[in-house]
Amino acid sequence: MSVPEKMRAVLLKGFGDRDNLYIGETDVPKIKDDEVLVKVHAFGVNRADTMQRKGQYPPPPGVTDIIGLEASGEIVLVGDKAKEQWNNGDKVMVLVAGGGYAEYVTAHMGCVMKIPEGISMIDAAGIPETFLTAYQGLRLIGNIKKGDIALIHAGASGVGTAAIQLAKFFGAKVATTVGSNEKIAYCKKIGADTAINYKHGPWVKTLQEFTREWNKPGFDIVYESIGKDYVEANQEVLGVDSRWIVYSCQSGTEADKLSLSTLMRKRITLSGTVLRARSADYKTNLVKCFQNEATNGFLNGKLKVITDKTWPMEQIADAHKYMEDNLTMGKLVVTIIQDEQ
């Protein structure tokens, strides 16, 4: 398959509002020996993308300024070293540190996954960043296991949806917080044992009662993206020898209500993590672990990609608005090539 020199991509006039997004022409990226070039059919939209658009989440050094952390498509070029694993024509989904919002994207050979049987290009675009982020936090860092009780904040988000399913997949009980009654019903439908509308007031006592129902003094794991506003409450609901994993800070990065005394008394392990800036070796190992432990879940129906809404690339600003309005229930995907579902 011939590869053009130029491609269309979502570009930025400058940091700021959604109006700064536009479709422009730029060079098709060159691959390294350990990379593949993918002709993108669809890409996922993540909260991190809106932050990068605003200038709040820059790409790692050496990574393209083009937004986008995950995509699905067809391999059209393979580096010499990558030929050990991949071939032209392979239908794949990729985890990238940037560049997903384009007609072509390069990906390290270890960050490429074959699309599971029965999964469409559109749904596949919503797997890599979302499911690998949740898997990394819950399994590799949180060591989630059967019998654990996990609290997952923002359960209706893309990562939240994946985290609820993965927690149940590994045998845990799950509670989640969301911002509407509609999202409560949605989260319960995908497996949450209980869900709380945080807009109805404090939720600590309700969730403490939930853990007592399972004969536990508190949660074994809190997996969250909220940050500042939930620091105090998280400490209250966590149990002894528990794990608290933070992967984003939507309400702010300050932790002025963090009590070291509580952390010591309850022996809480507090971990902060990001995926984007991790090394290629780390991501390669993450992908291998995920495929070994969880990919079969997509084949037997225990794990599902729940695509909430799709847009063509020309409507990328509408996709960002939908996310920033907190309307998301599942994954947001933008299409470049219209595939059959």
TrEMBL record:
Protein name: Enoyl reductase (ER) domain-containing protein
Molecular function per GO: NADPH binding; oxidoreductase activity, acting on NAD(P)H
Keyword NADP annotated: yes
Domain Enoyl reductase (ER): 16-334
NCBIfam families reported for this sequence: quinone_pig3 (TIGR02824)
Species, as recorded: Rotaria socialis
Entry superkingdom: Eukaryota
Key word NADP present: yes
InterPro entries, per database record: ADH-like_C (IPR013149), ADH-like_N (IPR013154), ER (IPR020843), GroES-like_sf (IPR011032), NAD(P)-bd_dom_sf (IPR036291), Quinone_OxRdtase_PIG3 (IPR014189)
Keyword list, A-Z: NADP, Oxidoreductase
Annotated PANTHER family: QUINONE OXIDOREDUCTASE PIG3, QUINONE OXIDOREDUCTASE PIG3-RELATED
